[in-house]
Amino acid sequence: MRTTTRRTHGVRRALTGALLAGLTLLTSAGAAVADDPSASASPADDGAGPTEAGTTFRTATALKQDQTGTAQASTGDYLYWVFPADAGQRPTVEATVKLPENAARRSTSTWQIDVYDGLRRRQACMYGHQTRKAAADAATVELSCVLRPVRAWSEPWANDPLPGSYYVRLTVVDLPADELGLPVGAEVKATVKEQGGAHDVDGALSEPLVPGVSVAGAKDGDADGSAAPRVPSAGEPEDGWASGWWTDRWLWTVGGGVLAALAAVFGYSLTRGRGRPAGVPQGV
What we know:
Layout: H1 2-35, E1 61-62, E2 68-74, E3 79-85, E4 89-98, E5 109-116, E6 122-123, E7 125-127, E8 131-134, E9 140-147, E10 164-174, E11 183-194, H2 213-218, H3 249-272
Parallel strand pairs: 1-3
Antiparallel strand pairs: 2-11, 3-10, 4-9, 4-11, 5-6, 5-8, 5-10, 7-9
Helix pairs in contact: 1-3
């Protein structure tokens, strides 16, 4: 009986040790996330957004995530904004166009928003109302585009969304020429939703797709080797890019390892048996 009791205590100690080791790994992983400011990109505080829009890719007005930009323009103008999106995020762009007074319009109009990545590749919308018609008596028209989740890495030939700047272009695509130039108001908002580790891939870009990021990185240091403070460029998060080694798949990996260890110890305790029966002499 003493042998059985000692083995039972040994199994309990092994189970307790494995559980404590798993808890330690999970705690250290969570602490790494908490200590790493780039591990989770917090949405920008709601505040007064920009009140103008660019007219080309180069002059696109920068928007923060969850920030609303407004602009006054003329019908037929191309309006551009740029916002950042990181790996694991699914961007959504919403736009509202305030149309001219009914007395100034006699025809229907068709409006459209397009989203381009940092390489100026047009990104397809998963769903939403990317193109919409507005009746002659409509006061506003609302558009939306939900992009695919941003991947940390992709093949060069693929058109997958990658971390970096995303450009929004808003314009009218169908309107009689005699109604071009009428004043309109535009309102654009870009939001992101974290998708978690389900869309994680092995690999990461050396630099996010932000125009001029490699040139800016080369100029960060002075000629004498001293580093100058880096100023975020347009279309870049103020707290840096979150793409890196950490994903929530680490939690699933560590948790699976702990469960496997517990199952192995428990199975060993079942298959080993109760030991030598009481009263049986040694050597038998």
